[in-house]
Specification:
Layout lengths: L3 H7 L10 H24 L4 H21 L5 H25 L4 H23 L10 H28 L4 H20 L4 H24 L11 H27 L3
Helix pairs in contact: 2-4, 2-8, 2-9, 3-4, 4-6, 5-6, 6-8, 7-8
Amino acid sequence: MLTQAGVRRTGMMNKVPEVTLSFWLIKILSTTVGETGADYLAVNIGLGTLLTDAVSLCVLLAAIICQLRQPRYVPWVYWLSVVLLSVVGTQVTDLLTDGMGVSLYLSTAVFSVLLATVFLLWYWRECTLSIHTIVTRPRELFYWAAILLTFALGTAAGDLATEALGLGFRLGVMIFGGLIAAIYAAYRFGANPVWAFWLAYILTRPLGASLGDLLSQSPEYGGIGWGTVNTSIVFLLVIAGLVAFISRARATTSSPT
């Protein structure tokens, strides 16, 4: 395990935000934007699946490189990376399902195995999966690989539940929201905080996807009918407002009195 002296030698501070209410709010909002944003780029703008995926991947790589070059947690860089990972994670699953005809049962199983493999390798090398010590390059790379896979897995699992199994968007929101609440209750009663965090993190993706579909899809498909444009704009504005608030609070806290 990395000692405090070892942490100081890396020259990095923790690159991940504290897990607060604002963290979960932005995470859920970003997953919804991933669902609606991917649909908007591919369908409404008319870029098509392949061009949309290529553009999103290039922008994501630029954001991740920027994130990796930061010596500490910078809110707007971090959350921009999360939003873009949400979009790309959604596109990966959609490409497999719609473009290649891969079953949602199979993609959910494959992404589960891949995510478990990342966690095993991460723990084997670092002896921890805690997000409170993302202070070395290997941990940071494992972290972002896990985040990408949680989005892809969450998209597949969410689509499997709401579409393939026919639960619908409203019931999907209630089920996944209830599971997250159950995990929080287990955490409060002494469950392992690391695993509670990652399980909740995975479930926020299908929760956000179900919420995005519920808000954006037309009533004939079981939605409210806001549309992907309005849903994406509203949620992006809320995310921007929350990130601006967090950045201002951090600047105020760190400034000398």
